[in-house]
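Page header: ASSEMBLY MODEL / four components / 478 residues total.
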Amino acid sequence: MSILTRKQREWAERTQLIIREADRLLAAGGYLGLNLDELAATIEYSKATIYNHFKNKEDLVLAVAVDHFRRRAEYFARALTHDGPPRERMCAIGIADEVLAHHICNGFEVMQLARTKSLWEKTAEAQQLGWQEASAQCMGTCYEIMAQARACGDLAPDGPNDETIVMGLISLSKGSHLLSEGLPLFEGMNDVTPESVRFRNYDFYLDGVGWKPLSPDHDYDAIRPAIRDALFPDAEQPV
Amino acid sequence: MSILTRKQREWAERTQLIIREADRLLAAGGYLGLNLDELAATIEYSKATIYNHFKNKEDLVLAVAVDHFRRRAEYFARALTHDGPPRERMCAIGIADEVLAHHICNGFEVMQLARTKSLWEKTAEAQQLGWQEASAQCMGTCYEIMAQARACGDLAPDGPNDETIVMGLISLSKGSHLLSEGLPLFEGMNDVTPESVRFRNYDFYLDGVGWKPLSPDHDYDAIRPAIRDALFPDAEQPV
DNA sequence: GTCACAACTTGAAAAATAGTCAATTCTCGT
DNA sequence: ACGAGAATTGACTATTTTTCAAGTTGTGAC
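Prediction written out in full:
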């Protein structure tokens, strides 16, 4: 017998069931499209049961976001296993990010929604801690890669500090994903995908930061497919 | 007598009144905090009157966002008047962005909300066109500056294309503003403001893109306050 | 001045959806 | 098989968005 009783396991499974279905509804119609009556109907439990698992609608949405975030932390951790110069590992983080975006339709929208003050305030503390933890884990992975880069001299010690670089990379990712998740922005960009633009922009940014090897000296575009196949062979298709 | 009749003017003024108050409520409590009963009470008109001006709640929110966006276009246009190398003008765009962010509390959150598919779908077409127009105007300003940079050789013709750079800059702005508008991310960053990190990151990115003069050769940090005072003397304090 | 007409405003009620709770059903140790 | 306690839910309330028909106001023709 496992540590958890059967009942506890069933409870946890149902929590996951609710989150999974809520995720689907959120992806389809955003916050406004998540209707608890509808959700209750699809999971074949009563609405009141949902309220046993979650404090309120906002709490449920945060739970969905935390679920995404945990998967993100897991994917980021895989990036650490890539062998090569640290900047390639940071590059792998970008790939993890991309794979997740394909996985989870409108995932960034949900993540953004979750960080909204008006939503956050209404959620349960346990949920908030889950978020903080996943967040710390993701950032920790990035910090570790940067520490390695500093150690081997690829990143100058007197250059920009770690916080600045993390903020820059998160901003680039978050901003551009939100841009391309919403209504299409650039109608005319048929030859390039949002993904390729994102990758190029990470390269420019890290070149600007002075993280060696610089992209003119190292063909990151050629390396990326290999990293993707090696670290994320289970990458699912977009929903 | 002007082109508009008195009634038309009154109507337009009230539209503005509604938008202004809705903006205040949105800034305070996000989408969830915008209550139409409350809004009707504060503007001292009935709720049904609001529905004469706007198709529905989503339409009103988009109107608020369009209002922000128009102001943004106006501020961006001012950046064009700055004299100096084109990159300084692009730098001025960043300052415009920053001034707006201080102006309008949670403005980026509202802008992001407006680009959400589930919201967009419910809005009136006229509103959508207003958004497109303001968007095109902002982007147009950026493209113009880049054209100037190409013309004088500060930006290599064989380098990254304009769309990539615009997307990079928008992402950096949007991503980092959303990051700092929500709950605080970096507790420990007492010595640096989100604003200074943003500026530094724009500099890194544009250095990476190879837009001359590069930041090590040109003290953009020293120039910024002067640009701000010259172009945005009316900059209001944060709400 | 007044009448007809159109445009505007609104109170009140419908519709939609979040949230609650007492009654019922289920589980499990004895 | 029984009863205590936990889990579940149907049916309810509360809140907020949305509609609509009746009433009001302003306008221009005569």
